[in-house]
From TrEMBL:
It is a lipid-anchor; GPI-anchor. Zn(2+) binds at D59, D333, H337, D374, H375, H447. Mg(2+) binds at D59, H170, T172, E328. InterPro entries: Alkaline_phosphatase, Alkaline_phosphatase_AS, Alkaline_phosphatase_core_sf. GO terms for cellular component: plasma membrane; side of membrane. One of its GO terms (molecular function) is alkaline phosphatase activity. This is Alkaline phosphatase. Its EC number is 3.1.3.1. It is found in: Cell membrane. The gene is LOC106173620.
Amino acid sequence: MRQAFWVLVLACVFVTVDLQRPQQLKDYWMDLGQRKLREKLNTKPNTNVAKNVIIFIGDGLGVSTVTAARIHKGQLQGKTGEEGSLFFENFPYVGLSKTYNTDRMVSDSAGTATAILCGVKTKFGLIGVDDRTSFGNCTSEEGASVDSILKWANAEGKSTGIITTTRITHATPASGFAHSASRYWEADADLPADARGTCTDIAKQMIEGDGSFIKVILGGGRRQFYHRNESDPEYPNVKGKRTDRNLINQWLQAKADMNMRAEYVWNSTGFNSVEPADVDFLMGLFEPSHMQYEGERNHDMEPSLAEMTEKAIKILKKNAKGFVLLVEGGRIDHGHHASLARHAVTDTIAMEAAVKKAAELTSANDTLTVVTADHSHVFNIGGYAGRGIPILGVNDAESDKNGVPYTVLSYGNGPGYTAPREDPTTVNTSSWNYVYQSAVLTASETHGGEEVPVYAQGPMSHLFDFVYEQSYIAHVMAYAACVGPNKDHCKMAPPTPTTSGGSSLEFSVTKALVVTKMAVAVMVAVIL
Ligand SMILES: *[C@@H]1O[C@H](CO)[C@@H](O)[C@H](O)[C@H]1NC(C)=O
Ligand SMILES: *[C@@H]1O[C@H](CO)[C@@H](O)[C@H](O)[C@H]1NC(C)=O
Ligand SMILES: *[C@@H]1O[C@H](CO)[C@@H](O)[C@H](O)[C@H]1NC(C)=O
Ligand SMILES: *[C@@H]1O[C@H](CO)[C@@H](O)[C@H](O)[C@H]1NC(C)=O
Ligand SMILES: *[C@@H]1O[C@H](CO)[C@@H](O)[C@H](O)[C@H]1NC(C)=O
Ligand SMILES: [Zn+2]
């Protein structure tokens, strides 16, 4: 009876979808192909100086997640879905980044975010230190520290910001300002006894270390910042994690001592009342741990990723020298680990909205925007599903060898394994808490080891259009913005941004190369 009901529901869905499917004959594809070709032939590399750099990291945003999010978004708008595109898929340049860690084929967010932000690959679980460090060994941090693009930018007078939907001390954001032999040393209580006093927890590094200059800090994880004897303002039963002191008060005091205007907020009301013109520093920590999935977000208590991005850019933009902003869609990864695919794709669409908002508030003439992932997931779209079939639903083309239907989306491993396999037509697979099936039972679905996409627009974005080590990304951002290892790039020519294709900057680099080559040729001739 129940099964018959679901068959009926699915049948209705298929019929509706088939009626919507537009017929696309040869003219459609020929026109589309020719139009895209002309567009591409007219794309000239932008060799301007990047005043601003915005880097979006979708945690776990592999290609299959981008595809599923694009289809889901289109279907929410009543379309078949495959033909659409997420905003950042229209960026002019795309490349692939190799995500392995120095010690693992399949990586974690700590080692990969360190590669993206600091330009140096390292081990699984390490934050802002190179491969000489052993995981969890405090003394092995000695001499291993590497700096991030945020620190390079700050040294050149730019403003910096970090936004995430996870705890602000979590692996990806932490790689922007911390140095730690373990990603898990988020509060002082997390440090092993032998590391206390020698190594510093990640939260404290945000207040006293390389994070102290960051102007905008927005995310979750406020428990890491107050004492064990203090209650959370929103959840009185939740206590802080620290054994030393309240770091939020320390941060506010430190900024006041510098005659800087700093504000701390912990809910949407406080956040919405912040006037960008009136603050120099803003810290917003909206949950004791991670912020909610977009699909479960309480709008009165937590701003969206797009709202946080907008506020941050309005504050950072006040600096005439520009800014570097890191934005993490951090819970895409958590959706996948729990095999809650609807949350993973919904949080992807929320990050897309943030990218769109950032593009509205900046210009590609002077702002390099990079959208990428730290690593992928073992997440699949399969089964010869028909055009426009609900992406969260059941494959209409075939059942398994035993005649049991299966969903379009599935995981290589994860919590959704049962034997015998459940018939998904007996449940609502598009409900938020539906756990998609996997081939192997693991407590948590795992990351994937293949390359991830890098979408880029703005100055020097054409340098991203091939297959490279993930650590290369930081180097292009540094070159485009003339910071860190590439701060001399701008000194080769007046840093006057041009608005057309070729620039004097590129010309002078070429000229410098020619002169060097000629000098070498003369020297060789003299020696011979
Ligand atoms: C920790 O690292 C230091 C420095 O590399 C090394 O001398 C020491 O043996 C390591 N300790 C452990 C327990 O592995
Ligand atoms: C909690 O402990 C800290 C540090 O020992 C102390 O300064 C503070 O007054 C205490 N707060 C409360 C609410 O007991
Ligand atoms: C939001 O935070 C402010 C302090 O910034 C507090 O006064 C207010 O009560 C909070 N609102 C809610 C709904 O908890
Ligand atoms: C399945 O769950 C989704 C999400 O909760 C809901 O929107 C939809 O109406 C449900 N479908 C059916 C047939 O109950
Ligand atoms: C960006 O450059 C284009 C020409 O390449 C120009 O038409 C446009 O006005 C510029 N936009 C801004 C915001 O400077
Ligand atoms: Zn993960």
